[in-house]
Task: structure prediction
Amino acid sequence: MTASTVLDQNPVAGLKDRVLTQSIAVTGGTLYVSSASKGDSVDTGRVSALAQTFVPAAAGGLSRNLPLLLGRTDAGLVMTGSASTGVFGITRSAGATCYLVGETTSSNAKTDKVVFDWRVPDSYVAGQAISVVVHAQYTGSGTVTGASTTVALAAYTESGGVETAIAGITAAQQITNADGAYTFSIPGAAGLVAGQEVLLEITLVITSASGANTGQINSVAAVA
Result:
């Protein structure tokens, strides 16, 4: 269990009414928890109010997974259990596997996309870069063209029905046949603020010089 540090007690411990503030170090920053205890004829330490605040570290934040099953096609439509032209499918076996699967190559290239409608969390510190971590890989016995087998991220702000592309995001990265974490940075210069709607578009390109290969996305997380 994570240890906490008492920052303040007002008034001092032992009196009937008091406010206690504690800090707990967590991944990406510090969690501050304040509790108010109101005594009665017997000081029971009964908590009558509780509040908590997360303060991110100077560089970083909380990592939150984006539910794969809530991803959409590039057109914003619901995915199905099978991949089709430009569209991922959902592969799930209860208690065993759950991932997004792309089209299978046949000595050619396949490009598939998935979009997540994401809101910048309240924990976000304005001006900080936001990391998006995509776990991806390819499978199959075909011979891939490594430099052309990649995962990429694009992001768009949404306001009044208008999309605006965010510039300066990390370039496409080459993937392998083992699950790997690929981190993309959305620059702080994008001017995002807590609560803002952002579309995260992930593109997977699988290129086979010969044979068959299939790309898959195993998880997506945003750190802010």
Q: What stands out?
A: Residues 63-223 form a domain with the Jelly Rolls fold (CATH 2.60.120.260). The chain has no helices and 16 strands. The mean pLDDT is 88.
